[in-house]
């Protein structure tokens, strides 16, 4: 166990917060999976879902361990090729994952021979952030022109978002806002960012108009978006979305101290209670105190990301920590805001707590890269410390040798003076006269 902990490099506080969130996730997932157990198996046995979640978390930590061992600058070289692969996966998802059993499932693809569903947009988010961080760090000292950045930076960004948008507006909007945030941190000209933001709004409006005009031309969920935004904006009694209504009941029932672990009632009625709306179940069972503790844990994790970015000397490393860490925390805030009806329903999971393999694993990949950045900085600090200790030892040896040589020289001078005095006394005839 000690050897395993010794091999965990990087920011220890990040490791700690991630482990605490993962450990805490077992209780709400185990409790909230009861409705899924009734629907899928008919017996209400949630042990299967707990074991699956355990396997997802265990595999996630294995991913973090191996990813954080890879030097983060290796990702520079593979970013563009990874982006091409992501485009292919997103296009395949959009075409082949449109309808499964009559339901819109264009966010997922099924991995052959394994049978595991995989949400490609989560991988796309990570790769796109790596790409933007690479571009900003590479052009840090070069004056950026809008025309050049439009081709080199924004064209790949818009292609990626356009492939995500038809099936998942919330992820596309979150990703676009995080890219703008990262460009701001990377000192991309604000006037260009304003033009890009305006262009994005115009393109979104064009997409919505075309989707409403030709609803069968391509897969989209525009009507669902409009319905959710409409329900959210009206805020009239009795007109809440069913999910929001049940989430509000769960939060109100929880009160300050909660009903207790496993005692949620609304988990039996709230759809996606173990994923998208798991925060409502947490507040129902653990109360306002438990909900605030979860919020505090994410804020502390954000604080560690800020510290890690500040300590990193490499601009590429700083942008990686911010570009991969901040979206994780922002996604958690969006999930919690949806549960308390501060945002419309979006379908964003709660990182490291909600059930779901691809969501957990992609979060773990991002955390592994962040820890790789902090590990490199620790290695640099350790190397500087070792150099200082080595130089101190060398200087001490030099000082000791110098002192020894000075002592030997002083002793030789004293012996020489003594010999000279004896000789002088024997050969100088005036000594005899002086003695008489």
Keywords:
mainly alpha, 436 residues, 15 helices, two-stranded antiparallel ribbon
Short note summarizing the structure:
By secondary structure, the chain is an all-alpha fold.
Work out the number of β strands: 4
What's the tally of helices?
A: 15
What structural class should be given to the helix and strand makeup?
mainly alpha
Major sheet: 2 strands, antiparallel
> Which ranges are low-confidence, i.e. pLDDT below 50, for 5 or more consecutive residues?
98-105
Helix content: over 70%
Report Rg.
32 Å
Write a structural description.
- Helix 2 (12-32) runs antiparallel to helix 4 (47-69), helix 5 runs antiparallel to helix 6 and helix 13 packs antiparallel against helix 14.
- It is globular and about 110 Å long.
- Residues 98-105 have low confidence and may be disordered.
- The chain is mainly α.
- Helix content is 73%, strand content 2%.
- The chain contains 15 helices and four strands.
- The longest helix has 71 residues, at 357-427.
- It has a two-stranded antiparallel ribbon with strand order 1-2.
Write the SSE topology:
Elements: H1 2-7, H2 12-32, H3 34-40, H4 47-69, H5 75-96, E1 99-100, E2 103-104, E3 108-110, E4 117-119, H6 120-138, H7 146-164, H8 169-185, H9 190-213, H10 222-234, H11 242-254, H12 278-311, H13 315-339, H14 357-427, H15 430-435
Antiparallel strand pairs: 1-2, 3-4
Helix pairs in contact: 2-4, 2-12, 4-14, 5-6, 5-7, 6-7, 6-8, 6-13, 6-14, 7-8, 8-13, 11-12, 12-13, 12-14, 13-14
């Amino acid at each position: 166990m000690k050897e395993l902990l010794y091999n965990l490099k990087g920011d220890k506080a990040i490791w700690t917060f991630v482990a605490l969130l993962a450990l805490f996730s077992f209780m709400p997932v185990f409790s909230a999976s009861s409705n899924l157990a009734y629907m899928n198996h008919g017996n209400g046995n949630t042990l299967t879902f707990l074991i699956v979640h355990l396997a997802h978390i265990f595999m996630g930590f294995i991913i973090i361990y191996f990813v954080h061992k890879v030097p983060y600058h290796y990702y520079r070289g593979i970013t563009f090729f990874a982006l091409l692969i992501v485009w292919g996966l997103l296009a395949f998802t959009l075409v082949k994952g449109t309808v499964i059993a009559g339901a819109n499932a264009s966010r997922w693809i099924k991995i052959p021979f394994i049978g595991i569903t995989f949400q490609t947009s989560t991988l796309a988010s990570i790769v796109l952030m790596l790409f933007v961080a690479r571009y900003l760090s590479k052009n840090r000292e070069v004056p950026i022109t809008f025309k050049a950045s439009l081709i080199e930076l924004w064209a790949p960004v818009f292609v990626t978002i356009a492939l995500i948008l038809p099936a998942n507006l919330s992820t596309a909007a979150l990703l676009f806002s995080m890219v703008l945030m990262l460009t701001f941190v990377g000192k991309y000209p604000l006037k260009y960012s304003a033009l890009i933001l305006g262009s994005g709004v115009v393109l979104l409006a064009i997409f919505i108009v075309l989707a409403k005009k030709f609803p069968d031309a391509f897969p989209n969920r525009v009507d669902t978006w409009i319905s959710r935004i409409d329900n959210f904006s009206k805020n009239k009694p009795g007109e809440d979305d069913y999910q929001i209504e049940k989430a509000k009941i769960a939060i109100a029932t929880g009160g300050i101290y909660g009903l207790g672990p496993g005692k949620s009632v609304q988990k039996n009625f709230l759809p996606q209670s173990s994923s998208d709306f798991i925060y409502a179940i947490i507040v129902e069972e653990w109360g306002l105190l438990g909900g605030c503790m979860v919020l505090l844990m994410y804020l502390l994790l954000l604080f560690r990301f800020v510290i890690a970015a500040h300590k990193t000397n490499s601009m590429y490393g700083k942008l990686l920590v911010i570009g991969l860490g901040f979206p994780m925390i922002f996604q958690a805030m969006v999930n919690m805001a949806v549960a308390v009806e501060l945002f419309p329903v979006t379908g964003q999971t709660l990182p490291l707590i909600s059930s779901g393999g691809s969501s957990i694993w992609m979060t773990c990949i991002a955390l592994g890269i962040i820890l790789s950045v902090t590990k490199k900085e620790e290695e640099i600090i350790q190397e500087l410390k070792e150099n200082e200790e080595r130089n101190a030892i060398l200087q001490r040896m030099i000082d000791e040798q110098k002192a020894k040589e000075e002592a030997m020289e002083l002793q030789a001078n004293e012996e020489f003076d003594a010999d000279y005095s004896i000789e002088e006394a024997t050969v100088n005839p005036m000594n005899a006269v002086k003695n008489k």
